Amino acid sequence: MPDAWLASYPGVREHEPLARHSWYRIGGRARYFLELADDAALPKLLARLDRDQQPYLVIGAATNSLFAAAELPGLTIKLVTRRLSIAGDVVSVSAGYLMPKLAAETAKAGRAGLEFGAGVPGTVGGSIFGNAGAFGGEVKSSLISADVIDRQGRRHTMTADECAFGYRDSVFKTAREGWAIVSARFRTTSEAPRVVRARLLEVQTHRRATQPIEQRSLGSTFKNPPGEAAGRLIDACGLKGTRIGGAQISVKHANFIVNLGGATADDVLALMAEMRHRVFERFGIELEPEVRVIGRAPGG
Questions:
Q1: Does position 232 have pLDDT exceeding 90, yes or no?
Q2: How many CA atoms lie within 13 A of 254 on its CB side?
Q3: Known active-site residue 168
Q4: What is the pTM of this model?
Q5: Is 183 a catalytic residue?
């Protein structure tokens, strides 16, 4: 068997339920699953997977990912690396570090510029992958560079320009598929910790007031169309509160789909299809998913 070595790889688990690794608590299984608190072995591992033509997926907190397959083939690698260092105005951080914790730690150190991270529940790696942002801030505004590993196991340092950031987009979604982000450097400025913490608190307060953070969701379901807000369009179609199975379009923010308990990927995908259909029917605007659907195309 070409994948026999995976079963005996240190730390690998077979048929791992992905719901326990998803903020949404939805998911099938991973054929093979590995959690890494240290990414030192990643270059050799990715090179071996590529050589053996084994599919793989690198994830973080999966706060924006819908696991839609009954079982993901190959190896799913979860990075839980927790490195952080601050030297002058440069903050170096590993990909598995959570953005809200990064925002809190840099605020405590009197470093400004990453307060928006308090409104981004995912990891640094995932945030770079999707150029995550919240309340006026986004990754591309402060990223200096990212350290990445390509499919052949080679390390690269990519500048922010080379990451080709767009609105909730980056080169890692297109031309660099399969490249693993392992760490990043952000530029910050110096301010009194109390001032930075006050701004961070504003982000948290605004998020609590406008988003259903007390329920499980994947954040914004669709990207905002140019000059528009996806939530406003969905709300205008009267879809707030619409429910399919255990999934519901939030009554607090129409661009969020919450898991009321027991929701399946099919429930979520059916709601997404209804939202897109109704908005296109009424406004002629085709909504583009912001949620990353893994294992199945959003259309079916």
A1: yes
A2: 19
A3: yes
A4: 0.94
A5: no
